[in-house]
Structure formats: structure tokens, C-alpha cells
Specification:
- The protein is mostly helical and 218 residues long.
- The chain has 8 helices and no strands.
- Helix 5 packs across helix 6 (139-157) and helix 6 runs antiparallel to helix 7 (163-180).
Length: 218
């Protein structure tokens, strides 16, 4: 009985999930797999996914406006990253590096400042401009998810290993929020991205060590 109910619930959720969301999910999976494999094709996949999610998160039933802004930022950074990685015809990507103490000061500062700006935007500015129409019921979490991911994406473009850590802070907070917003498959995608990012971090550490040993042997 319970199995039948679970199957019916799963089927209902599949049917209720818009086609555009499925396309965004597929593109996002391709993006993170390409990123883990250190391939430039992560950026075209990211452009498709972020464009769709920007629209989805602005729907009245979702209202994750900071996430929508985040995906707009992802979209722009994907274009920038694609151009940056491809400037040498894709044959010589930027080297993988680690964040130093100065980088970490910037990371913490940007995450904190980003959270504060987004929180005030969601709780003060948007309601005032739109006469209360645009109101987020999870503003604090929405702002934290986005601020951590913003910094993580910047680190990814600069090919810093720590990008995976920041992106996973965003991912683990986002999972319960997406479930609350009744987007179970996007929540499952985010959990998948969390797991893949762990392996991406380990893979990039190997690349970094290989680069370091190559340089030291010259």
C-alpha cells in the first residue's frame, strides 16, 4: 500500500514539474560534470540552466528572488568564463590555484556583505518599490544561499580549488528551502550537485598537486 502511494506521489510530482525545469535540471547536471572534468563546456550548459532558473525562481509560487538574481549573475559569469577559458582556443586553460590568506579575507567579506545587501534588498527595497508585491518568506536563507554561491562562482571562474567549498555551503542550505518551495526534483539535483562537488574538490586538488610537481621539476 505504502509503495503504491509513494509511486503515485512520485508520478504526480513528475507530471507537475514543468518541462522547462527538467531542461534546466539536465543542463545543470551537464554543467557540474563538465566542471568536475575540467572542461570548458560547463559554461554553455550553465548558460542554458541559469537562464531558465532565473525565470522559474521569479514565479509567484516560488518567490526566490535572490536565487533569481544569483542565476542572472551565473548567466553573466558563464559568458565571461567561457570567453576567459577559450581565449587560447581552449588548448591552455587557466591553472588551478589555491586561495591564500588575502583571498580568504575577501571571501569572508564578500559573503557577509553579499548576504547583508541581498537581505536588505529582499526585506526592505523590493517591498517598498513594488508596494509589498515582491516579498520573500525565506529572505535570510535565500540571501545566504545566493551570497555563498556568488563568491563560489567567482572562485570557479578564477579556477580556485575553494570554489567547491563555497558552492557546497550554498547547496546544503538550498536543499531544504527547495523542498519547502515544492521543487523536489530541483532539490534532488542540488543534493546531487553537493555530492559531485565533493569529488570535484578532490579532483581539482589532484590537478593542483600535478601542476605543482610539474613546475618544481622544471
Amino acid at each position: 500500500m505504502y509503495t503504491s502511494e509513494a509511486i503515485n506521489l512520485f508520478t504526480d510530482q513528475v507530471v507537475a514539474t514543468p518541462l522547462l525545469e527538467w531542461i534546466a535540471i539536465a543542463a545543470a547536471i551537464a554543467e557540474v560534470l563538465y566542471a568536475r572534468a575540467n572542461k570548458v563546456w560547463l559554461y554553455p550548459a550553465g548558460i542554458i540552466s541559469t537562464a531558465i532558473y532565473t525565470w522559474l525562481f521569479c514565479r509567484p509560487t516560488i518567490r526566490l528572488y535572490a536565487d533569481a538574481l544569483l542565476n542572472t549573475y551565473y548567466f553573466a559569469m558563464s559568458i565571461y568564463g567561457w570567453a576567459l577559458w577559450s581565449k587560447n582556443n581552449g588548448t591552455t586553460p587557466l591553472p588551478v590555484t589555491k586561495a591564500d590568506r588575502k583571498d580568504w579575507v575577501m571571501i569572508v567579506t564578500f559573503v557577509a556583505a553579499g548576504w547583508l545587501c541581498l537581505y536588505l534588498l529582499l526585506t526592505r527595497v523590493f517591498p517598498a518599490i513594488f508596494n509589498g508585491y515582491i516579498i520573500s518568506d525565506v529572505a535570510g536563507f535565500d540571501a545566504l544561499i545566493s551570497s555563498a554561491a556568488w563568491v563560489g562562482m567567482w572562485l570557479l571562474v578564477r579556477r580556485k580549488i575553494e570554489n567547491w567549498l563555497l558552492l557546497n555551503v550554498s547547496n546544503i542550505i538550498a536543499v531544504p528551502i527547495l523542498l519547502y518551495k515544492e521543487m523536489p526534483f530541483t532539490a534532488a539535483l542540488t543534493l546531487f550537485l553537493f555530492i559531485v562537488a565533493i569529488f570535484g574538490y578532490l579532483e581539482w586538488k589532484k590537478i593542483y598537486r600535478l601542476q605543482s610537481s610539474t613546475v618544481s621539476s622544471l
